[in-house]
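Honest question from a wet-lab person: if I give you the sequences of every part of a complex, can you actually get the arrangement of the whole thing, not just the pieces? Trying it with mine:
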Amino acid sequence: MTALPQYRGKVGNEMVERPMDRLNRPGFAAAAVEDLLTGAERLRQAFLQTPVRFAARDTALARASDPEPAVFLLHSGFAYRSCAMADGRRAILDILVPGDFTGLDHIVLARPMEEITAADRLSYHALGAAAVRALMADPAIALRVLALIAEARWRGDRLAASLGRLDAHARICMMLLDIYERLRRRELINRPSFNLPFTQEQIADHLGLTLVHVNRTLRRLREEHLVLVDRQVVTIRDLDRLRDLVRELCPSVEIPEPTVSVEAAVEA
Amino acid sequence: MTALPQYRGKVGNEMVERPMDRLNRPGFAAAAVEDLLTGAERLRQAFLQTPVRFAARDTALARASDPEPAVFLLHSGFAYRSCAMADGRRAILDILVPGDFTGLDHIVLARPMEEITAADRLSYHALGAAAVRALMADPAIALRVLALIAEARWRGDRLAASLGRLDAHARICMMLLDIYERLRRRELINRPSFNLPFTQEQIADHLGLTLVHVNRTLRRLREEHLVLVDRQVVTIRDLDRLRDLVRELCPSVEIPEPTVSVEAAVEA
DNA sequence: CGGCTTTTTGATGTCCGTCAATCAGTGTGG
DNA sequence: CCACACTGATTGACGGACATCAAAAAGCCG
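Yes, you can. This is the full assembly:
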């Protein structure tokens, strides 16, 4: 019964300084960073002013048929974005952790093709697509929204590359390390162990495998003393080796998504 | 020697009216549509004022190491977005056709992980990320940029679902129909045949297969009288059957991306 | 305890990758 | 004009990673 990680957006103002050096990369204008930070804060505030909503496990926040979809900010619990294939199979396109925004596409795309579902008991904030669109009149917020979507897209690209070019072992390693890093960056965990409220079938749907093969691969990871996945608790046994292994696969891991610095600054 | 499809952005103003009814879906405010349309036009104009650039086959428009990346609007020819895996393998994440914008992530993400490469002789417009960021001060343009990224992400999601849950035959069908529909919507072709300047190895890298298996599957498609891919010319023999086949796989095909209406209006 | 979901493990098959060779098209230079 | 090299397409033989089918075990909950 590990407590669910809960997200608390701390509103510091030291955040304006710190990321500057970290984001001091060629081609990234200081003005843009400042905009991103103020935009992040304003967007967050807008969501925090909405009432907290709750969803039980396996209930949908947004359906493919929803007339007026919303944008969500997860507060606690995990969710996932999925789309159903015609033959009843399912593809889980994105895993969402506390602190994530999702549904931003709805600002411009009507009738999303995907569903957003709670993986366990979830608390979140919701704001209608129209409201967020109105907020975007603020250029800082517009830039922040753009950064959030771009980051989500970056994750999607990584997933596609992973599905296309890696085997089951590598895919699972990437996924687990990825989630670990995201939780850690948001300071939702500080040990290499966390609760992952997904069944092996859901993991399979995410990684393009079958639950049987996921199970076998998890056993192998356990035998290698790399990662232990028991029930829905993930324990990374050898973080360094896991990092090396994943780094060898996808070069992009060495370069974390740039907006992360903003994330960390705003959320830490 | 099929002539390369060339993209001519016609600048009509009848476009403000027509899509309104088409986009008259629940939850899509008329104001947003109007913004999207004016934003689309302004963004296009900004790019059209830059000189046309050219790139030879297999040259990179943007590299993963680029200090100040740019945003591109393709004018003629195909390109692709790819990322290299550590073992030398490659994943082609997106196929770009004339009229596509790409590199919009660079507005907020420094150091993209991906490369953009010309698949054949290419002509295009380029605008620095900072310049586009400045353009985004215009809310209409900001909304349009958001729509473009959201659409690209939608394509990425489809690819991921396809890689994870479909076999080689289905993946190739989806890809070919997809490209066909995109070219047709932009009125770059009017017959079910087009030039596709990709080697079978590149197709394999896009669909997570090997060139050998792509070859075999293409032969099967030919034998089924579904699609004929000879050299780099694609000829769809039975469009209806192909559509049915793809529709059976991914339900989202029935709902084309909403911004397409805007595309069609602006570009047709 | 009985019904449920989830995990685990075995046996068997298949889609697809790997290795390898041939063939066709294209360009290059002697 | 014809070797020659080179890239891309094609095909066969073989093996492996993963799917499918099936069943049992283990948690979980009323």
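Two things worth pointing out. The longest helix of chain B spans residues 139-165. Chain B has one domain: 6-253.
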